[in-house]
Structure formats: structure tokens, C-alpha cells
Amino acid sequence: MHTGYARLSARAQSEAAEHLRLLHRLAGIAGFGCAALFIGVGLYYRFQLFGDASLFSYAVAVQDSWAFHWHNISNRSTVYLYAHVPAEFYARLTGDAWGAIKVYGFLFYGAQLLSLLLTYALDRTAQRIIFVFACVSTTAVIPLIFGSPTEMWFAHACFWPALAAAHCSRPRWSGIAAFVAFLPLAFTHEGALIFIATILTTVLLRKHEWPRFWQCLAATAVVLCIWFFVRSNLPPDNYTGKVLSAAASNVFNPEILLERMLILLAATVAGFLLLLFVLRRARLAYALDLSFGIALAALAAYWLFGSHELHADDRYLLRTVIIAATPALAILAIGSAFAGQLHRASEIVCSFPRSVFLAFGARAFAAALLLVLVVHGAETARFAAAWRDHLSMFTRMVTEQSRNARFVELDPENPEYEELPWFSTLPYLSVLVAPDFKPARLAIDPRSDYFWTSCATATQSVRKASAHGIPAQSREMIRRYTCEHRR
Predict the structure, then answer these.
(1) Cα dihedral 413→417→419→423 (10° resolution)
(2) How many angstroms separate the CA atoms of 131 and 117, rounded?
(3) How far apart are the C-alpha atoms of 358 and 53, rounded to whole Å?
(4) For the chain, does the N or the C end have fewer beta carbons within 10 angstroms?
């Protein structure tokens, strides 16, 4: 950025610097605002019951998360230790099952806020550029999976402090700082190994940082040894292992790139920048304001008159985008933070995004960030309203008295059930939404072909029932359903 910036006049430089400071402030406000809203919106709309999270919430309520699922994904133990163990401790201490579920939701959705606070504290670059990009990522990227219980949510939260620690720690302590930051990152999700490789790559971009790189590489080697040791000694059971292998093959499915939300975001930002370019070339006054207004009007027309599905179940699938987009932003962050201190090849690669930034200006990118916020806000509001209505309908369904039926089947052909229900966790959701955790019957999907727990685990859960929390009769309903399908 410095080469193009130096060519500007003194007045233009002053204006550009002021606009850049405004962009940084906007990114910080947007990042912290989104991180706080994740907590408030997530808890208010009970997103901790959406998808697989209903199984996780049920496991917290019965204080048995490790036996229910986490022993099968031991290499993601950071999430278990951070969000599940404290919630289970609260349940054990108070007997308040729903309160424990709220604790779990608070910790889960609060991970991004904690991440930004840590990144701010660790970032020692000029103008805290790494922190600024962390805020941009929290604003523009991570909302794609907000509401989904994917562990990539935690990988993103751990990544930015790890990046700041690797680059900004004192040289003599960089190896220890990298180890402390990389270890929890590695145990969030397998995709986090790509994040660690990205951090090592960004250290290589900088001149005269070979000692730092070798220390970070040594820390990575130790972390990987621990990771492989845990993975080999605490493998998933045969049933779950096959399912996890099949799910892993879909992580990098290129069809995900055609998902509606990605197309909408790309079309919004690209359309805005293209229109701005054309209006500026036409020397039209207030080109930026006009382009922004037209983009907003187009979005309003899209939501008012368009026919499109909810961004609901795809929130889980878009973890792939987090794996790809976060490293890209990290490379841009390091290229901006250490401009002039990079190897020549790195400077050449980073010169293109700098040129694009200078061509449009900080105000244009601030406007683009606001448009992205509008898209995420509107789509999340639609999802939240639909999920609230779905929970109300679902509660009526499972509390409806029936003499003979132990189960109520969701009609797979009903369009109302296409996007929000999660076929494998419906029995657990049935218990969680019922008053006093006592459903009259369990809702099931006849298409379900995956069952989270073994019969032995569900039976043991019944034996652990007490006067507080999930009652024995509800655990027995889960046990009977489980034992009919899985031994």
C-alpha cells in the first residue's frame, strides 16, 4: 500500500489516512457488535437447539457429553473442555438443566467475542492490523455459519489470537507462544490444521524471520505429536467412525460454492464496486453514495419480491468457506501489517490487493462491509423468525397427547420441514422443548439412518437420572428409541 500511497498529494494522503482510520474504527465496531449479537441473538432464539446442537444440549443437560458423542471426536476436545465441561459442572452444582443449556450456548456463541479481545491484546502491529482483519472476518465470514454447531466456529475463534501470537510475540518467546496458541487451535477441528499451516506460511512471508519460523515449526511438530497421540488412543467407535469418514468427504464439495448466500454476497459486493467504478468513470457527483443506495434498493427488492429459501441447514455446510476464507484474510492481514518487510515475491503478490484497495479507497470498502452486514443481518433475521415459529410448532407436536403413539413422524414431503429439522436429533429436541422436559411423544423422521448413541449409553443415562434435570421417563423414551435402532 505504501508505494501507491506515496504518489498521492499531501492533502490526498491526509484524507486517505483519515478514511483508513474510519474504516478501522468501523471494522472494530462491527466486529465487536457482531460478536456481542451472536450471544444475545443465539440465546434469545435458542439457536443452541438447532441441528446437531440439540443433541449437544441434551447431553449437557444429562451431564454426559463425553459418553454421548465427544469420545468419538477426541481431536476436537477444545470445544468440549471450553463449552461442555463448565455447563455440565453448572448442571451438577445446581440441578438446573435448562440453565446449563444456556451456559453452553453462552460459552459457544461467546467464543468470537473472547477471540477478538485476545487478538486485540496480543496484536502489536502498527494500528493493530491483525485485529482489524479479525474483526472483518467476524463481520463478513463467520456469520455464514452462525447458528450451526460446527466446531469450525471455535477454529475461527482460536485462529486469530494464534496468528497474532505467532507474529507479535517476542523472538525469544515465539516458540512457547506458538505452542500455547496452536494447541487449542489444533483440537477444535481437523480443518484447523490448515489454519496452522497458514500461520507458518505467513511467517515465511516476512524477511529476517527465520528464527521465528523455526520456533513456530518446532511448536507445530510438538502439537501434531500430541494430536496424533490423542487421535490414535481415543478413536471413534466403528459405527460413528464410518459416518465421520463419509462426512469428511463432503467438506470440500465444490457444489457448496454455488450456495445461494455466497452468490448473494458476491453479487452484492461485486455489483456495488462495479457500479461505483462506472459512476466514477462517468465523473458523476456522489458516486459512492449513489452506488450504495442502489445496492441497498436492489437488496430490498430481492427480499421483498424474490422467492428464495432460508439460509438454514446450509449454515453447517458452509464450514468449508470458513476453512478457505479465513486463511485468505490472514495472508492479506500480514501483507498489510508488514508491508515493506516482506520478501520480494510476497510484496509482488500483495501489491495487487493493495492496488485494488487504493483504486476504490477506504470509504468504498467501508460501504461494502456495511452491505455485507445488511445481507447477514437480514438473512439471520429470516432464519431466526422461522426457527422461532418452528420451535412453537414442534412443541405443540410433541406435547399433544396420544394414547397409542409413542412417536410422531415428520412428513418428509411437507415443505415446512425441508430446511429447519435435523433428522437425527429430533428425539432430543422433543425432550428439550417440552414443558419440564416431559414430552408426550418423540418426533422422529422416518428417513433417519444415523443414531447418535448406543443402546448401552442410553441405558446408562436412564440409571443416572435424578430428581433434577432431565426426568427418568424422558430418558427412558430416548433409550427405547435408541435401542430399537442401534445396539
Answers:
(1) -90
(2) 9
(3) 43
(4) C
Residue with cell 482483519: 133
Written as nine digits, the cell of 170 is: 517476542
Place of cell 519460523: 213
Kindly list the distances between the CA atom of residue 371 and the CA atoms of 1, 84, 155, 363, 378, in Å, as whole numbers in the listed order. 24, 35, 26, 12, 11
- pLDDT tens digits for the chain (487 residues)? 455 545 555 655 666 678 788 899 999 999 999 999 999 999 999 999 999 999 999 999 999 999 999 999 999 999 999 999 999 999 999 999 999 999 999 999 999 999 999 999 999 998 999 999 999 999 999 999 999 999 999 999 999 999 999 999 998 899 999 999 999 999 999 999 999 999 999 999 999 899 999 999 999 999 999 999 999 999 999 898 888 877 776 777 777 888 899 999 999 999 999 999 999 999 998 999 999 999 999 999 999 988 678 999 889 889 999 999 999 999 999 999 998 889 888 888 888 888 888 889 889 999 999 999 999 999 999 999 999 999 999 999 999 876 667 888 887 667 666 667 788 899 999 999 999 999 999 999 888 888 999 999 999 999 998 878 899 999 999 999 999 988 8
**Residue 5 host element (H or E):** helix 2-6
